[in-house]
Design brief:
Structural class: alpha+beta
Distance between the termini: 71 Å
Helix content: 25-40%
Largest sheet: 5 strands, antiparallel
Order of helices and strands: HEEHHHHHEEHE
Low-confidence stretches: 1-11, 205-223
Strand content: 5-15%
Length: 223
């Protein structure tokens, strides 16, 4: 979360009851703000607890949408926000399906949770999303393997609004200290990769032209 006016510490969106835990999160928010890559903390429902300024810069351009803003619930943003694809490259295959798989695994463990049940109801009300969840997701998991749903280490495309980054990739890094984990939270950082620079042209000797449609690695047929 960005710093508040007057130099105050950032306040967690979902503060725990314990004053010690709240103080820890306030200090952790300061640490998060020092990270140059988009970084955020979520609970088991993907409700966003903390974000940093780089996160705001990445998603700050998306328009308002009820219950599906990136700084409120990241899963809902990925699944339901109509502008999610403007930031998340290859939105359906590289973001929606992996996060649906994560959601399915979480509901197997915590299916009684009211917040997760609400997300499941919203999925069911969207015919395309429901078909993807019930039919497309099992096929995808069989094809790519269950490990593809794990966020840590995944490389996914982004469309950064800052032209210095533009269309690039990020590696999702899950780095959760023990105290944060005990509170039921997870920290995720999107480590941006430098966009590839165009290669400088090199002057090479001209080669003899081969017949059209003939691969250069295959000898040309003899006359």
């Amino acid at each position: 979360m960005a710093f508040q006016a007057g130099g105050q510490r950032p306040v967690p969106r979902s503060a725990p009851v314990s004053p010690e835990a709240q103080a820890y999160l306030q200090d952790y928010a300061m640490l998060l703000e020092a990270v140059s890559f988009p970084s955020f903390v979520v609970d088991h429902r993907w409700d966003v607890v903390l974000t940093n300024g780089a996160f705001t810069s990445l998603f700050g351009g998306v328009g308002p949408y009820p219950t599906a803003m990136p700084g409120e619930n990241f899963l809902r943003f990925v699944l339901f926000h109509p502008e999610a694809g403007s930031v998340l490259g290859d939105h359906e295959s590289r973001w929606c399906l992996p996060m649906l798989a994560q959601f399915a695994a979480t509901t197997e463990r915590l299916g009684h949770d009211p917040g997760l049940q609400a997300i499941r109801r919203d999925i069911a009300q969207d015919p395309i999303m429901e078909a993807a969840y019930r039919h497309g997701l099992p096929h995808w998991i069989r094809a790519v393997g269950p490990a593809a749903a794990e966020p840590d280490g995944a490389v996914r495309p982004l469309l950064h609004p800052d032209p210095r980054w533009g269309a690039t990739d990020c590696r999702v890094v899950e780095e959760t200290p023990a105290t944060l984990r005990e509170l039921g939270y997870t920290r995720l950082t999107l480590v941006l990769r430098e966009p590839p620079r165009p290669a400088r042209p090199r002057h090479r000797p001209r080669r003899a032209r081969r017949p059209a449609g003939h691969l250069s690695v295959v000898p040309a047929p003899e006359a």
